[in-house]
Each structure stands twice: as C-alpha cells, then as structure tokens.
Amino acid sequence: QVQLVESGGGLVQAGGSLTLSCVASGMAFNRAAMGWFRQAPGKERAFVAAITGIFTSGTPVANSVRGRFTISRDNAKNTVYLQMDKLTPEDSGVYYCSVRLGTSDYWGQGIQVTVSS
Known about the structure:
The protein is mainly β. The protein is 0% helix and 51% strand. The strands form two sheets. Strands 2, 4, 5, 8, 9 and 10 form a six-stranded mixed sheet that branches. Strands 1-3-7-6 form a four-stranded antiparallel sheet, with no helix packed on it.
C-alpha cells in the first residue's frame, strides 16, 4: 500500500524559509517521479514542483515559485524535499506530496504552511 507522509510545515514570517519532507513507502521510490502541490483557501490544488525518477532527469517548477523553491530527493531515504525560500503570504496553503503510479494518483495527507506578513 502506497503511503506518503509530509512533515516540516508551520508558521513562518514573510521572507523566511521552510523545508518540507515527504517520506514514501509501499512503492519503488527511486523509479517514481514525485511532485508537490498546494491548495490555498478557496482555490484549486495547484502544481508546485516535480522531480523525475532515476531513468530520466528534470525538475519542473511552477512559474510562481521558480528561483525560490527547490525540489530534491534522497532515494536512500525514500524522501522528497521541498526547500522554500523567500516565502510570501501568497505561498500559504496546504502542501501535498504526490506520485502517479500507472493510472493511479496517490496523495499525502497534506501539511499546512502559513506565511505571515
């Protein structure tokens, strides 16, 4: 059974940094492309960043976070990270880790990030 567990969220002042972690289990982690999404109150869930598995390379990121957020992974720890710098109140929301395996999408429970002005 695939499980994704996020951690590292919280409250931070504008201009600050946070690092989110997502530990995956029940899957061949190193082969899978992993993604981060976020959902602000009253808005749809939106793509933030992704990182490919071992057979390809690439780290696409949303325009809104390019240059401020960095996605990375540690295959030995089955963990994907989202380093978030220069945070703004517009970055607030629930952040989700996700993976698509075949035709199925799996999501973590989500973790709250709140950026105060």
